[in-house]
Amino acid sequence: MWTRDNAPPSVGDPSSQTERATLVLAPNANAWTFEGTNTWLLAEPGADVCAVVDPGPDDDAHLAAILAAAGDRRIVGVWVTHAHTDHAELAGRLARVTGAPLRGSGRRVAGRPFQPGEVLPVGPLEVRVLATPGHTGDSVCFHLPAEGSVLTGDTVLGRGAPIVEPGRLGQFFASLDLLSEVLAPAGSVILPGHGPVLPDPLPELGRRRQARQRRVDQVARAMADGLTEPDALVDHMYPDLSPDLRDAARISVEASIAHVQTARS
């Protein structure tokens, strides 16, 4: 049963959005996406333009919901935090329908790549690009300095831990450190790619970092005891794991193995 503290986000719920970021929840709920992908519309209050972040799956109803949420505002940017299908599949179609430029950071997304620290104007609203590799090599976050919010994609989820690509765990820790700096001011808030908004970001980021480090330490101890195969480590570390999440756990374990091996070399 959902409570106010962990309720799924919904369009129009004040606790699930901010003055400049409006949520449209995609209809792609599953074990990996929680209630679905959080698509965000960014606009200064009263402005006649907006940008769309993470349009989500290629779904007719979701496309219609995005356009309805934009209303009379012209969509001037279609941006993705990373190229995974659950965030980016609809992006090309939305860009064609609206005429807005499509942008991402990797080669799998058409358009001019984002640059770290780049400022993106959406009418009077300024949005700053943060390079946050780890979950993927092309992951970025979007900072709204006017209100202290950050759209984190899958770098920080509303709950739980994201997959980190093997070989990128060091980058992931550095990305969490960067977000901790950006989100330090009072009143900051995390607007994640999945799950509920996080209004008290620094303790959350600290807990996420500590939890990931505990898993790395657990893998290091198991490897020292001779347990080195990823599947065996998944069985050891996640004895009650749902079969739907086994692939995700294996990727996370492989990332920890690579991190431990790098530290030892």
Q: What is the CATH architecture annotation?
A: 4-Layer Sandwich
Domain count, please report it.
1
Report mean pLDDT, rounded to a whole number: 92
Number of DSSP helices? 7
Using the alpha-carbon principal axes, give the shape: globular
Q: What's the CATH H-level homologous superfamily? A: Ribonuclease Z/Hydroxyacylglutathione hydrolase-like
Q: Which spans of ≥5 residues are poorly predicted at pLDDT below 50?
A: 1-10
> Helical residue percent?
25-40%
Order of strands across the biggest sheet? 1-2-3-4-5
- Largest β sheet strand count, sense and barrel closure: 5 strands, mixed
- Give the amount of beta strand, in percent: 15-25%
* CATH topology category name: Metallo-beta-lactamase, Chain A
Question: Care to describe what's here?
Answer:
The structure is a single chain. It contains seven helices and ten strands. The chain has 265 residues and is α/β, with parallel strands linked by helices. The chain has one domain (14-264): Metallo-beta-lactamase, Chain A, CATH 3.60.15. A hairpin with an 8-residue loop joins strand 7 (125-131) and strand 8 (140-144). Mean pLDDT is 92; it is low at 1-10.
Condensed summary:
With 265 residues, this protein is of the alpha/beta class. 33% of the residues lie in helices and 18% in strands. The protein has one domain (14-264): Metallo-beta-lactamase, Chain A (4-Layer Sandwich), CATH 3.60.15.
List keywords for this structure.
single chain; 265 residues; disordered N terminus; Metallo-beta-lactamase, Chain A; globular
